[in-house]
Design goal:
The chain is α/β, with parallel strands linked by helices and 285 residues long. It is 37% helix and 9% strand. Helix 3 packs antiparallel against helix 6. The longest helix is centred in the N-terminal third of the chain and has 18 residues. The chain is globular, with a radius of gyration of 19 Å. Bound molecules: uracil (URA) (2 copies). The site of one uracil has 15 residues, from helix 5.
Length: 285
């Protein structure tokens, strides 16, 4: 990234970092707030303006987006899943032999085809495979497409997706620097939680995507993603906030952005989790 777009993003990231660190007013002395407890170093000079423009205040990860989710993202994320124990095949997943991660992903997508392996295929409009850098070091895994994703064929493009994009940018990345995928590739009717057999049928494709990309970190968004990747039955509240090691990957479960839209107070928890991810990504391989 270069030029004013890059500078703007850096400034936005710094402003967001300060806001999450509890800074509510900017003054000329704001440069000293690096002691506020956050570890994320500013990448750009701190602007002297008394406050960011309204457009920035509204649009950011921590911004004024606490209204309802209007049915565009999956409800029922707080619901308990059944007692089935998921067993993660992530450890055994293999990507197709290929010269590059991009080619391996292409082969996985080809294998998926116009999938009818489970009932979710009956009501979907489009398969939502995944998007981003095939060589990403960071993957975000969601639950399943919502209505906007089903229409556009791309994960996390609705309201929750826009919040995810702001989280990614607050971490100093662009959306296209990371990879984003879901546990199930087809929208569950009425955005219900995917059922165990649907997850069992579809998650091997996610695991192959992970094996093709070989990221350093997998961020699991919400309970179903965390349970699927970790192969555990715990809920996100118990699983989040620390790394789990699975098959050579560091896995950070955190709250789903749709949950953050309903519970903005939890954004600071997600930010703490993302700071751990950022610190780990900065450490030597
Ligand atoms: N929620 C998800 O879990 N995934 C998406 O792609 C969109 C919303
Ligand atoms: N339940 C979920 O599935 N995800 C969250 O982020 C919070 C509660």
């Amino acid at each position: 990234m270069s030029g004013s777009a890059g500078n703007r993003q850096s400034v936005l990231a710094v402003l967001e970092w300060m806001r999450l660190a509890g800074v509510t007013h900017l003054t000329r002395r704001a440069a000293t707030i690096g002691t506020a407890g956050a570890t994320h170093p500013p990448r750009a000079p701190i602007p002297e303006a008394a406050a960011p423009p309204a457009e920035i205040q509204i649009g950011l990860f921590g911004g004024a987006n606490a209204t309802g989710i209007a049915g565009t993202t999956a409800p029922g994320r707080g619901r308990r899943r059944g007692p089935e124990a998921s067993v993660t095949p992530l450890a055994g997943a293999e990507a197709p032999a290929a010269d590059s991660a991009a080619e391996a992903l292409r082969l996985i997508r080809e294998d998926l085809g116009e999938c009818t392996r489970c009932r979710l295929s009956e009501k979907r409009s489009r398969i939502v495979f995944g998007v981003g850098d095939p060589d990403a070091r960071l993957i975000f895994v969601g639950e399943g497409p919502g209505v906007d994703e089903d229409r556009q064929g791309e994960p996390f493009v609705g309201r929750a997706g826009q919040l995810l994009t702001r989280i990614i940018e607050s971490m100093g990345f662009r959306r296209e620097d990371v990879y984003i995928a879901n546990v199930v590739k087809c929208r569950p009717p009425d955005n219900r939680t995917p059922q165990a057999d649907e997850i069992a049928t579809c998650s091997p494709f996610l695991f192959q995507q992970v094996a093709a990309i070989r990221p350093r970190v997998i961020v699991c968004l919400g309970t179903p993603a965390a349970q699927t990747v970790l192969g555990t039955r715990g809920t996100i509240t118990h699983l989040r906030g620390r790394f789990h090691d699975v098959a050579g990957y560091r896995v950070m479960p955190t709250f789903h952005p749709a949950y953050l839209l309903r519970n903005p107070a939890a954004k600071k928890d997600v930010w703490e989790d993302m700071k751990q991810v950022m610190a780990f990504l900065k450490s030597p391989d």
